[in-house]
Amino acid sequence: MSVTWLRQENENLLDRLREAEETVHAIREGAVDAFVVEDEAGRSQVYTLEGADHPYRILIERTQQGTAVLHGDGTIAYSNLSLAELLQVPHERLTGACLGDFIPPPAQAAYLSLLGQARHGKSRGEIDLRRSDGVRVPVAVDFSLLSRGDGMIGALVTDLTDRRQYAELAAANRALRESEARLRHILDSATEYAIISLDPHRRVTSWNSGAERLLGYSQAEILGCSGDIFFTPGDRVAGQPEREMRRAREEGRAANERWHLRKDGSRFWGSGVMLPIDEEGEAGYLKIFRDRTAEKQAEERQSLLVNELNHRVKNTLATVQSIAAQSLRAESGGGLEGFESRLVALSHAHDLLTRSNWQGVPLRELLLQELEPYRSDGCTRLRVEGPDLRLAPKAAIALTMAFHELATNAAKYGALAEPAGEVHVTWNVEGDITDAAPQMLRLQWAETGGPPIAPPVRKGFGLRLIERGLSLELDGEVRLAFEPPGLVCTIAMPLSGGKGSSDVL
User: Which of 33, 42, 202, 383 is at 20 to 30 A from 460, Cα to Cα?
Assistant: First the structure.
């Protein structure tokens, strides 16, 4: 072989190599209707499809998406490795297989509809593929008619698993955020309830607006602080916070009924419950309570009133028993009529106390009630003068009985038995309310204008009730003076009260 021939042959080989490279480049760029497959050694082989003389775009065999060329009935004429991997089927088994065999029954109708549309142009949709192991894979399929002559259809299959999972995760996160926002809104709307979460060390981990309103701490200044701060010093020393948490852990709940402290040091009665919770695998606790101070105080007042009522009923029965024993002795107590009138007087005192919820009765009102039967229009024979003063229940009942006896006695034997007779009741309060010694009430019942009187040989039950009853019940002093103008009764007893105006009947 001559040098000239070798040179010529080398030039021919170079021309063919350049032509091959240009062809491969054109195929890779999609300008030629063929596809290239590289073997393990990196050598490229060019394949033309049947009917490559018709104008359709070649599918690239090594994309990440599954690609295939289908006959009109869905039989696979060509598929790339990505589609085989997606279906978990050996690549060589796909050629000649029907793509519809990998479509589960529920998606068959959608698949056939897309394939039918592609015979006239293009179609796109989302369906499920069924892998060889039976797992369903959501995919998006793009069908395009490659050649109207032979009805070849190109298929591009995109795995939507990651996209679906991402969308589901995003939706779940969005729902979680919305749920958290709703929960926070609910918690913050519960302004009457303090809702607090604590870690196992009793440190505050969450705090709603109700807790801020009730306890006075903002969320910024309380998070991470010990929840023991809400307990009174006595409860903290007694280990109440530890016991409450231990009971919640062991029994599933722990009642929270005790006095608590606000930031400003004021106390309130907290009523609620502590519950154990599992937060991200770590134990925690939820504490819910509200301010029931008013209810607690009402319960204590009610209990006190019940006890006082029991005591008063016993005292009243004892008084009735004493009145009955004395009144039914006709020679001293006035018999049945006197007994009934004294019971009526006692009931009047109880009526006044009931209207004031047993908080006390004004002295002036008590006097006016007892003297009411002896008043007449335009009558000025009864005068009541003294400062405004509220009597405690015990004093009110004792003085009612005393005034009743004085008025009854005056109507029978004294000033009220004569048209010109007068009764003048005056009182004042001695002493300062700030002094250690109690204030003293000094009251005088003075009668004038009645029939002449003289000291009785023997005092009846009414006068004895005045003297002994006030002395024993109220630790008071009573002095009865039978003066020529009329009876004068002076009463001195310890109390607390205030001064005011006077009334004249």
Answer: 383
Q: For 37-65, how does the pLDDT look when each residue is reduced to its tens digit (9 = 90+)?
A: 444 455 554 545 444 443 333 444 556 78
Instruction: For residue 460, give the 3-state DSSP assignment.
Output: coil
> Do residues 17 and 29 touch, judged by C-beta distance below 8 A?
no
Pairing of strands 503-504, 486-495: unpaired
Radius of gyration of the chain (CA): 54
- Structural element, H or E, at residue 503: strand 503-504
- Which residues lie closer than 8 Å to 239 by C-beta, 6 or more apart? none
Q: Are 324 and 343 in contact (CB under 8 A)?
A: no
- Digit-coded pLDDT (tens) for 106-165: 999 999 999 999 888 899 999 999 988 889 989 999 998 887 777 888 888 888 887 777
Whether residue 155 contacts residue 141, with contact meaning beta carbons closer than 8 Å, is answered with: yes
| DSSP state letters, 147-169 | -TTT--EEEEEEE-HHHHHHHHH
Give just the sign of the alpha carbon dihedral 58, 60, 64, 68.
positive
Joined together, the tokens standing for residue 229 give 């701060």
Q: 3-state secondary structure string, 368-410?
A: HHHHHHHCCCCCCCEEEECCCCEECHHHHHHHHHHHHHHHHHH
3-state SS, residue 300: helix
Alpha-carbon gap, residue 179 to 158, rounded angstroms: 33
Claim: this prediction has a pTM higher than 0.70: no
Evaluate whether 389 touches 498 at the Cβ level (below 8 Å).
Answer: yes
- Taking the C-alpha atoms of residue 298 and residue 143, their distance in angstroms, rounded to an integer, is 80
